[in-house]
TrEMBL record:
<feature type="transmembrane region" description="Helical">
    <location>
        <begin position="215"/>
        <end position="236"/>
    </location>
</feature>
<feature type="transmembrane region" description="Helical">
    <location>
        <begin position="281"/>
        <end position="300"/>
    </location>
</feature>
<keyword id="KW-0472">Membrane</keyword>
<keyword id="KW-1133">Transmembrane helix</keyword>
<dbReference type="InterPro" id="IPR053160">
    <property type="entry name" value="MFS_DHA3_Transporter"/>
</dbReference>
<dbReference type="GO" id="GO:0016020">
    <property type="term" value="C:membrane"/>
</dbReference>
<dbReference type="InterPro" id="IPR011701">
    <property type="entry name" value="MFS"/>
</dbReference>
<keyword id="KW-0812">Transmembrane</keyword>
<feature type="transmembrane region" description="Helical">
    <location>
        <begin position="97"/>
        <end position="120"/>
    </location>
</feature>
<feature type="transmembrane region" description="Helical">
    <location>
        <begin position="72"/>
        <end position="91"/>
    </location>
</feature>
<feature type="transmembrane region" description="Helical">
    <location>
        <begin position="141"/>
        <end position="161"/>
    </location>
</feature>
<dbReference type="InterPro" id="IPR005829">
    <property type="entry name" value="Sugar_transporter_CS"/>
</dbReference>
<dbReference type="InterPro" id="IPR036259">
    <property type="entry name" value="MFS_trans_sf"/>
</dbReference>
<feature type="transmembrane region" description="Helical">
    <location>
        <begin position="369"/>
        <end position="386"/>
    </location>
</feature>
<feature type="transmembrane region" description="Helical">
    <location>
        <begin position="167"/>
        <end position="184"/>
    </location>
</feature>
<feature type="domain" description="Major facilitator superfamily (MFS) profile">
    <location>
        <begin position="1"/>
        <end position="390"/>
    </location>
</feature>
<dbReference type="GO" id="GO:0022857">
    <property type="term" value="F:transmembrane transporter activity"/>
</dbReference>
Length: 390
């Protein structure tokens, strides 16, 4: 690998690190319930609004990235995130929360697909596109490293400056990520064919193409089922800790352990898939262990099963998304790659729009029963098998 490519990859890793450097992660429940005055159902409705906005914006922003440049999309998304964090943490108001969630959704939609498409095209230009799974896995590791460092700091910030301070200070790494994104070079994928293409044609080749290709549609549904359960871990582990009378000061350590579990799995993608023979077998295994993580903590809640919940349901569930997304890169033409990846992500967002308020209501009713019900979602992947590896 030449020095220029190494420099590009390092900057890409730096961008990933900063996008994960959010101080709010370890104090989500106190932020919404204590400072914001919401119950879990209301907080989950806000998350549904967030996911709905991303669902609506996913393909349009993917089209924008494909036509106007992936780098510009990353810069704009980072700056919008900074504005969203400042508004969200300024005052406990539902109206401001809705505005803040909307801006944060714009950020996710602008970055989703565009980041991996940009680095894939850079690798392809250098004849190293076969490294995409490794690079994306490591970028996710850097992203998680940002969370790992920021989460405990967020707990300290909340204790000393107030529960809303972590959200306000998250705007700083957002601005820094925009600066790093601006330094990333971008391969020219907007040749004559793309220049003549209209947004409708790009949408057709991306989103409609996924619907028409059964193997990709099945993958999107498969990913959505496990992703919905894995996402629920982030919003449930603090509630489990409350039932175990664990002091809030340890929440940051619990979140850090979740990140460590996910990072270890990401660092060993090649080894794990080697053990199982194929990516599909490992993906099936990871779905089943997510279910196991939910069931053990629901039936036997204690410190040990909490750790299993974080490692199995959280670690395997959250890392699984990145593995399958990276694995799907080669199935799309470069011109429409960001649109196609964003379209797959839309399926995940739609599942959250539907399931968030349901899961929130179930949890307000019974934490243990909700953990069992949510934990059964990954088992449905047996009806939506992944396409054969090629």
């Amino acid at each position: 690998m030449d020095k220029q490519m190494s420099s590009v990859i390092r900057r890409y890793y730096g961008f990933s690190f900063l996008t994960g450097f959010h101080f709010i992660a370890a104090v989500l429940i106190p932020f919404f319930t204590d400072w914001g005055g919401l119950n879990l159902t209301q907080a989950q409705l806000l998350q549904s609004w967030f996911a709905l906005n991303i669902f609506v914006l996913e393909v349009p922003t993917g089209v924008l990235a494909d036509r106007m440049g992936r780098k510009n999309s990353l810069v704009a998304g980072s700056l919008v995130a900074a504005a969203g964090a400042l508004i969200y943490g300024s005052y406990p108001s539902v109206t401001l929360f809705v505005i803040g969630e909307s801006l944060l959704a714009v950020n996710v939609a602008l970055v989703s697909g565009a980041d991996q498409a940009l680095i894939y095209d850079a690798l392809k230009l250098g004849g190293e596109e076969q490294r995409i799974t490794q690079v994306v896995g490591r970028s996710r590791m850097f992203h998680l490293s940002g969370i790992l460092i920021a989460a405990p700091l967020g707990s300290i910030i909340a204790q000393t400056l107030g529960t809303n301070a972590p959200m306000l200070m998250t705007s700083i790494p957002c601005v820094l990520s925009a600066v790093v994104a601006w330094t990333l070079p971008e391969a020219d994928t907007t040749g004559k064919t793309a220049t003549r293409s209209t947004a409708i044609n790009i949408f057709k080749n991306g989103f409609i193409g996924i619907i028409q290709q059964k193997m990709i549609l099945m993958t999107a549904i498969n990913m959505s089922l496990v992703a919905a359960a894995a996402y629920a871990v982030i919003w449930r582990y603090q509630l489990v800790m409350e039932t175990l009378d664990i002091p809030i000061g340890y929440y940051g350590l619990a979140h850090a352990s979740l990140v460590v579990a996910e990072t270890v799995i990401l660092m060993n993608f090649d080894r794990l898939t080697g053990w199982f023979g194929t990516i599909n077998r490992f993906a099936s295994f990871s779905a089943y262990v997510v279910t196991a993580g939910f069931l053990v903590v629901a039936i036997w809640p204690n410190i040990l099963t909490l750790a299993m919940f974080l490692a199995l349901a959280g670690g395997f569930g959250l890392s699984r998304i990145d593995l399958l997304t990276a694995h799907m890169n080669h199935r799309f033409d470069s011109e429409y790659r960001a649109t196609s990846l964003s379209s797959i992500s839309m399926f995940r967002r739609l599942s959250l729009v539907i399931l968030n308020p349901i899961m929130g209501g179930l949890t307000d009713w019974s934490l243990s029963y909700s953990l069992i019900i949510i934990g059964l979602l990954p088992l449905l992947t047996i009806f939506f098998p992944l396409p054969n590896d090629d």
